[in-house]
């Protein structure tokens, strides 16, 4: 594993918006709470990286 620190050049609102879209998709698909490795917020950050 290689740890690193990154700074995203995006607005916080963009991350929250993407997080909300991911959450809506999880609800649409019926994904149970606690079954994903990442929260919607952390997944949004990973996508934007």
Which properties best describe this structure?
mainly alpha; 49 residues; single chain
Explain what you see.
By secondary structure, the chain is an all-alpha fold. The chain has one domain. Helices cover 55% and strands 0% of the residues. The protein has two helices and no strands. The two termini are 17 Å apart.
Could you provide a short overview of the structure?
This protein has 49 residues and is mainly α. It is 55% helix and 0% strand.
Q: Average pLDDT across residues?
A: 91
* Radius of gyration (Å): 12 Å
Query: Uncertain runs with pLDDT below 50, 5 residues or more?
Result: none
The fraction of residues assigned to DSSP E strands is under 5%
Helix count from the secondary structure assignment? 2
Task: Report the helical percentage.
Answer: 55-70%
Structural class: mainly alpha
Biggest sheet details:
none
Q: Count the strands?
A: 0
Number of domains: 1
Head-to-tail CA distance between termini: 17 Å
The general outline is flat
């Amino acid at each position: 594993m290689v740890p690193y620190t990154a700074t995203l050049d995006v607005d916080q609102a963009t991350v929250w918006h993407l997080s909300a879209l991911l959450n809506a998709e999880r609800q649409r698909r019926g994904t149970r709470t606690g079954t994903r490795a990442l929260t919607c917020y952390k997944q949004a950050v990973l996508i934007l990286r």
